[in-house]
């Protein structure tokens, strides 16, 4: 049985280390809205807070003297130093980058910057990113296989698509986001992609 | 302020041993002093001092139109001024939320206690006496609310009602003293690391996580309450504070 | 003017512990990070949460935690009586302050240093108990936004009317009754996070009144939980198994 938990609801000890759970006096409680199923919980809503090592997708919002400010779909903006770049960036550019460090107030410094051009940028709630990737990358693999698109997933809830059937790929990702916490998702997505491809093929 | 923040750890360390930075018991007030009739041009006034905190209350009367829903009652209004002379962080300008809260907490205590017989301030249809109580903070060393409440009560207790002739107030002529139906004092308690203390000084206020102000009357009623600050209070803590407030309000009212 | 019927019931037919009809809907606004509409008796209050975002004005920035910017305000047309002035007044500034303290208690502000979280509470129609309605709604809006909190707080008022303690006073009971005690609690810890009182009450009455509030809070929390479960049940719609 699945159940929606709200802040303050007790969660089973088996889920004490999950995101959206806090502990007090040896008991564990939800801090955000969670879905509970068989002693496990997943957050249904949350904010992206940068963590060192994360790969993220950002949008350039400001050019400064020595670098750029990057919007990360987060309360915190990233910084890129000009020294780490081979080319100049423009405001509005979409980039992928790695969080190389985060200071004590959550502000990340980004490196390994790659500029994207063309393609399409999608945004989903960051808590749903694990489902877009799937177990051992299985969902990503499925998406690539069926749509022929290159899919870049940022931990901050942004997904960049390039080449292949972009329309089908974005449709599929929005469906994953909507149904992120239902079981049998991979099978259902396979069915969906097959069906959609068959329908489109008919039209052609 | 910086110094007060540095003292925070020390205050908390002492409180673990039920001790306070100035050596007082947890429920003890600082020395209280009242100076009556300080402003002769006002119909009533008093300076209340609690430790190093000084608040001047002035009471003035004016002729007013009553509120539509209370046509036979005088109007009582409270204001407060956090004068820049009282603290380095106070700036001139419109009242901020702390100033508004202070005036409203003192106001609600005295209003709910029905201390002032507002019906006695009725003059004729459409005309009543308005009582303006202004709370002037002169020196801020913590616990402004209780000091202001005490200043207000003292000033009101020594207020003379001006003579009214032909719909005008004759200043400096009086018809008698303002009668107080019930005396009330506001008592404020601060919670620091789970320990509750009375009459916090300014260092203790900086360390405080939560505040409970209770106005209790001399005949034992709770007349108003205001919880402020981040920390919560349990029901038991509140019940204990009601008892303590009753005791302390009697002590405070002895000075007026 | 009697405020209770001969059989001890209230003028609108409620018993002393009965709440007015209460409806809570989460996620009613598109642009806000989280939102909630509460309809409680004739009260209608809309709560919206924005942020965490950069602090404005900047000099207030706290490197250790997020600031809560709580704003309670009444629309000029909200009252059954005269047209009110728009914008904050002394009453709404005081209520905004104590509402802020409630959220400072439950929100994990330390997880979002150097930011600000806006909690807007707009009273569109008022009928007594607007501050507790507003905070109850704002709590749902914060959860809807995904802001981490220790608990979903809720509030209700208790007061003495014709010598009897009653829960959830309407405007009429509030105006003509002998006292009004709006309270917001954390149901998980039973702590009082907002506690205001006006009117003459004995210690015993305060104690009994609080017990009535704890009881009523169970009902209110259930409605809050239902509102959030309704909003988020969509995520489960694909579940065919």
Oligomer: heterotrimer
Number of strands of chain B: 12
Say what the CATH topology of chain B is.
Answer: Ribosomal Protein S5, domain 2
Structural class of chain B: alpha+beta
Residue-averaged pLDDT of chain C, rounded?
A: 93
Q: List segments of chain B where confidence is low: pLDDT < 50 over at least 5 consecutive residues.
A: none
Arrangement of strands in the largest sheet of chain C: 1-2-3-5-4
Can you write the helix and strand succession of chain B as a string? Answer: HEEEEHEEHEEEEHEEH
Alpha carbon gap, first and last residue of chain B: 32 Å
* Net shape of chain B: elongated
- Largest sheet descriptor of chain B: 6 strands, mixed
Describe the fold and architecture.
The complex is a heterotrimer of chains A (204), B (256) and C (241). Helix content of chain A is 23%, strand content 34%. Chain A is built from four helices and 13 strands. In chain A, helix 2 packs parallel to helix 4 and helix 3 runs antiparallel to helix 4. The longest helix of chain A is centred in the last third of the chain and has 19 residues. The model of chain A has no long low-confidence stretch (mean pLDDT 92). Chain B is of the alpha+beta class. Chain B has one domain: GHMP Kinase, N-terminal domain (Ribosomal Protein S5, domain 2, 2-Layer Sandwich). Helix content of chain B is 27%, strand content 36%. In chain B, the strands form three sheets. In chain B, strands 1, 2, 3, 4, 5 and 6 form a six-stranded mixed sheet that branches. In chain B, strands 10-9-11-12 form a four-stranded antiparallel sheet. In chain B, strand 5 and strand 6 form a beta hairpin. Chain B is elongated. The two termini of chain B are 32 Å apart. In chain C, the strands form two sheets. Chain C has a five-stranded mixed sheet with strand order 1-2-3-5-4. In chain C, strand 8 and strand 9 form a beta hairpin. Chain C is globular, with a radius of gyration of 18 Å. In chain C, 55% of the residues are buried. The C terminus of chain C is likely disordered.
